[in-house]
Amino acid sequence: MEEGxxxxxxxxxxAKAVKKMMEKLGIASVEELFADIPxxxxxxxxxxxEEATDEYTLxxxxxxxxxxxxxxxxxxxxxxxxxxxHYVPAVxxxxxxxxxxxxxxxxxxxxxxxxxxxxxxxYQSLMxxxxxxxxxxxxxxxxxxxxxxxxxxxxxITGRKKVLVAGNVGPERKSVIKTYSWPVGxxxxxxxxxxxxxxxxxxxxxxSFDSETAAVxxxxxxxxxxxESQANTISExxxxxxxxxxxxxxxxxxxxxxxxxxxxxxxxxxxxxPMGIHMNYGGPHLGIFAVxxxxxxxSMPGRLIGMTxxxxxxxxxxxxxxxxxxxxxxxxxxxxxxxxxxxxMALAAASYxxxxxxxxxxxxxxxxxxxxxxxxxxxxxxxxxxxxxxRGSFFQDFVVGYRNSDSNYIFRELAARRINAGYPLSESFxxxxxxxxxxxxxxxxxxxxxxxxxxxxxxx
Length: 460
Description:
Low-confidence stretches: none
Largest sheet: 7 strands, mixed
Mean pLDDT: 91
Oligomer: single chain
């Protein structure tokens, strides 16, 4: 096809159109549009692409490449730390798949999205009960972005510029917090954890507070799966210093552990993926964000859905009551990075919790904690393994220490046997060679035995 020929919807293939656009922009070449991208990271020359082929052949080639992925049920999965393997009831998928919901997943015009608005209102209500909080938004992208937004919110409220982050929180969450913080001059200081229990070092935490500390962020259970037994103490220390308490949670743990609002958390964030959302190669997720005092809601990112009545009072009606911090409303004046939400995932979570009910939710938690503790005991029988590595109480995740083996080696060897397990802990944790394991309601005693037998083969 000639360079100057007309191709509908592809103006970059029309030389005259390209020239006109460049004149309008005041540039001499298309390359000038990418001048701010460092040359060291730019592709030089053309892309080494194969010749085009027919759709059927291409599909077979892609499927062949995808077959190398280790996914359930073709491979056992014992990974956690942010994405967990849970059973998703078929009815949840059925509800989420209804076109009335997935075509109105982000209701900018509330008057035409009553069904989705009611779902979001129900989601907020369920999460407030679960978290022991007064207001919950609907919703955030994921746990990491929710935690980072909470940090910036605390800074806006207090006018201070320093945040304490526990050293035993998830590395992805920690990284995103730092990414959100440095452009606005927020100092992020990491607090050590006790290498014996896996919990926050209370002495080190207390010594780190000063007049510029806006907030402390810790997770319960933390990244190691350990339950912070001194959560109340952490909150008391922070409040005594005029700081805000931000707690990160895994929601299913709240079937057995008290909600963050009950031990003094001002802001609760977390990951909603365990509540009826598939692992999906790591996304989409559902970021949880709630506040203890409804007065803080005006500083909270995202949206709040409220319930009212029609003008004559004859029917219930749902509407968006607060979204003042989003970019589509305040543009450059927005205080939050969130500009849409994960409403379809919130629908999945609300459906999941409603179907389980209070009794089912607790029974699920009991099954998870029983399975994980059985697994920890079985792995402790393997020579040269320390299971669990930390003596603190745990829920579904726990760390296994390796006396003579490299954690990356074990991770790769298990993967070669079609077992996803023992995610290697970063050396920054300072706990030696160790891997993170997770056990939920989907894992049977047979699954655990398969894992144990393979570990016996690969551990040195």
